[in-house]
């Protein structure tokens, strides 16, 4: 039962909209409901695309690379856990930098740390397995710095009228990057030979990360204002009626699945087939399905549909785990991958948009957007850490197929709990 970082994009919330452009970081914001994306939104999507391509090219195979050096599920779990803890701490600490100084520096630092990660992997080669915590720390720093800045800028360049469209395009780019790049990586690894192939794709990712840094300079330096409150948003959870009292546990439930399925499915595909090329084929097929699904949901989903769409998505991405009880092989994994790719947009787009819309639901909340984005990530990371610790505990106790499948079904069904927490936020009583 294992998997490397899967490209099923998941990120965002909705509340009353105000016409004040200050809420969205643009003095020339288009009217809500127009659904148009301005040039800064497009550039941000390009940066996201380059980051996604570089990670899809090599990230899909990082856990396989570690697994081939040492067949140890627990080791893969500890690698994921070190990333998750570092990412949470990075979000919290870098929040001050992003709010009070230059958020673009954080964005570029995230891309830069990703490049350093692959440089270190190239340098260590097969010895990388002995430096799992260092590699996890670098990955956590990269993800924390990049996604904190990305989410803040994303909030500032969008509004409730075009947020679903932006998320749809982000999902299209994320899945699009997974259509050919992992397949190409698998082909190169297979044709060039293991170590040489890995060295080449890791080097290629390095180059793409540097291009991403260059493109990021076309993003305007955004204004900063206010003082970062280290525990301000967290302290607000004590207030009755605060929607974040439902949102945070909802995000934690989402993170439980992400924390484990983010590293286990790709690894399971490789273990079932023993071929990197088959993992590339798997990612190509599932990403192609996700591409079409994100395109459709991003185009046709309306705010009034979020409640039902999220419920259908949560139930279906849980149900597609059931074939594992028959047999865990390439066919059942493909059924799972296609089903997840098909229904994940119905779950993730309403959730992501609703959370970020809530951040913009009042002037005070919008002014504390950095703190709320940090709180959002801390909620997700709590869930990821919990899920990964459960995985490590179970895998250290037994690898019996039935127990593993029950664990995957329970962890994979947590999105239903996310919907239960979010249902009144999406559809206020």
Structural features, described:
This protein has 429 residues and is mainly α. It has one domain: MFS general substrate transporter like domains (Growth Hormone, Chain: A), CATH 1.20.1250. The chain contains 15 helices and no strands. Mean pLDDT is 85; it is low at 1-34.
Structural class: mainly alpha
Secondary-structure element order, N to C: HHHHHHHHHHHHHHH
- In the CATH hierarchy, what is the superfamily? MFS general substrate transporter like domains
Our measurement of the CA-to-CA distance between the termini, rounded to an integer number of angstroms, reads 41 Å
* Name of the level-1 CATH class: Mainly Alpha
Beta-strand portion reads: under 5%
Helix content percent band:
over 70%
Tell me the domain tally.
1
Q: Give the low-confidence spans.
A: 1-34
Properties at a glance:
429 residues, mainly alpha, Growth Hormone, Chain: A, disordered N terminus
